[in-house]
Amino acid sequence: MSVGDVSSVPSQFAEPFLKLTAITKSYPGVVALSDFAAEVRRGEVVGLVGENGAGKSTLMKILGGVTTPDRGTVEIDGVPHHSLTVSQSMSAGIAFVHQELNLFENLDVAANVFIGREPRKFGLLNVVDGKTLHAMVQPYLDQLGATFSSSTAVSRLSLAQRQMVEIAKALSLNARLVILDEPTSSLPLAETEKLLKVMAALKANGIAVMFVSHRLNEVVQASDRVIILRDGRLVGHLQGGAVTHDAMVKLMVGRDLKVAYSAPASERGDVVLSVQKLRTKTFPLAEVSIDVHRGEVLGLAGLVGAGRTELAHTLFGIDRTEGGTVLLDGAPVRFANSAEAVRAGVFLVPEDRKGMGLLLDFAITENITLPNLRAYARGMTISRRAERERAEKSRGELDIRAPSVAARAGSLSGGNQQKVVLAKWLAMKPRVIIFDEPTRGIDIGAKSEIYRLMRILADSGVAVLMISSDMEEVIGVSDRVAVMHQGRISGILDRAQCREEDILRLAVGHGVAEPANQAGHTQC
Predict the structure, then answer these.
(1) Share in percent of the chain as helix, strand, coil (round to 5)
(2) Sheet holding 30-40, edge to edge
(3) Which terminus of the chain is less hemmed in, N or C, by CB atoms within 10 Å?
């Protein structure tokens, strides 16, 4: 199908070009999919939701030709297949945009879109026809509303723009179904809106989209209908006005689940962490001043590149301080490294939990006890029994779901991995915990547990600083919301008066409708 080939038949009346019937796939001890059935039509956006382990990944692998089902039928244009090969999947127009993008940063956009398929000059294999290549790619970018050209280096693109490049690659392969796997998990609201517009453009051109996401509010915005999986089974379809956050949650978890968006049990206490005119190496001329109180969750919002993670890394001793003062319970501190921050009771739960928060090949026990091995020393040796007891206690307190504490951290779901990261700090009496994107890639049930744990920490007197690009999370979980713009705090909003539009205005450097209060505080 060409880029401009728009279906004249409304998707709700069109015949399905892809039909799955009784798809079943089992692994030793686990039924990943059981009698799954679904249809996909041209020009519709289908949401696919379910908790981690519900069967979404298995379904995508079957559609991609990577996994063969035990039984069932995959029907494409009326032709039944027991399974697909990778080449059959691609030939059928099924294209994937994975959460971990597969692009070459040292090449430009055009080279990435047609990597391995470049047009050649004069039929010579080693001479790329660059002019033709760029002429082929630019219409796809125009179709998606891209603000960059085919000659732009990928290294200069934002994450949302890189996803556009992956989608352009899918269009160049005559995609009929584009499967987006957690495409917004790392995007702030402004970038997410751009991606939702791209999905609408694909739909308008008769291309089907399968939108896999844990961000249910975005699924509501984007989807014509939603398929819900639980424990490998199809548990429901929702369509049109029936697609709501609460309806999806109830089907996903099998019960009503009220996410822990609750106010603190008591008034916030004294200031634990006071940041005064702090300058980071990324924004050496911008000053950050902010206080985090005992017993509160202070949300930190802002666009990608605003300096939120850089601030967290500076406070945790990963990056050097360019100037300013940090007070911990009124006493000045300056951490030369993260080990000093840990000794002072300042801990970071990083955005990249796999790369920075865990040793994936090590057991749960070792991940929990490693930062504080002295606590488990008995003479000149480490007591394995003491380590196991600590790990078992954490497993029970945080409901870490694993066969045993000897299980590899890399084998756990995202939510349970996050709990292990948190467990290692909770064993060390935290004073301040910084969460950077705490629920990225985590399903709705695990999100609720993380929010509950954050609130328990705050109520126990810990000062919690939460960095998040999820607007619903920021507004729902935070007691106050500080917003960053270009390395500075552009305003602080009280929870009761906080609105999404005011956070966005502050994030892009504008004020809100009402005047700012003293000390940079703003009321909506």
Answers:
(1) 35, 25, 40
(2) 30-40, 18-27, 71-76, 79-81
(3) N
Pull the structure tokens for residue 193: 């809106």
Go through 98-108 and write b for each residue having 16 or more CB atoms within 10 A of its CB, e for each that does not: eeeeebeeeeb
Residue 476: is it exposed, middle or buried by C-beta count within 10 angstroms (0-12/13-18/19+)? middle
Q: Supply 427's token pair.
A: 């064993």
pLDDT at position 125 is 62
What pairing do the DSSP bridges indicate for beta strands 18-27 and 346-349? Answer: unpaired
Q: What pLDDT was estimated at residue 519? A: 40
What is d(CA 244, CA 225) in angstroms, rounded to the nearest whole number? 10
In whole angstroms, what is the distance from residue 155 CA to residue 162 CA?
9
Rounded Cα–Cα distance for residues 37 and 24 (Å)? 10
Quickly tell me which residue has 């993008």 as its tokens.
Answer: 101
Give me Rg for the CA atoms of the chain: 25
Distance (Å, whole) CA 412 – CA 391: 15
Dihedral angle sign, alpha carbons of residues 430, 264, 288, 488: positive
Round to whole Å and give the CA distance between 266 and 64.
51
Cβ-proximal residues to 369 (8 Å cutoff; 6+ apart), any chain? 375, 376, 387, 390, 391, 424, 427
Q: For the chain of 524 residues, list the mean pLDDT of each consecutive stretch of 10.
A: 36 76 87 92 92 84 93 93 91 84 87 85 71 89 85 86 85 88 72 82 90 87 92 90 86 62 67 95 93 94 85 94 94 93 93 84 93 87 92 90 90 85 88 90 77 88 91 87 92 84 79 48 41
Bridge partners of 290, per DSSP, are 275
Question: Are the beta carbons of 1 and 207 closer than 8 angstroms?
Answer: yes
Alpha helices in 145-211 (DSSP H): 159-172, 189-204
SS (H, E, C) 88-137: HHHHCCEEEECCCCCCCCCCEHHHHHCCCCCCECCCCCCCECHHHHHHHH
The neighbour count for residue 127, using CB atoms within 10 Å, is 12
Residues in the chain: 524
Query: Which residue has tokens 């039924």?
Result: 31
Q: Around Cβ 326, how many Cβ atoms within 10 Å?
A: 19
Let me know: does 433 contact 368? Beta carbons within 8 Å.
no
Q: Position of tokens 């999370």?
A: 473
d(CA 307, CA 481): 15
CB atoms < 10 A from the CB of 377, how many?
11
Tokens at residue 497, please?
A: 């008066």
Place of tokens 């059935």: 37
What lies within 8 Å, CB to CB, of 517 at 6+ separation is: 523
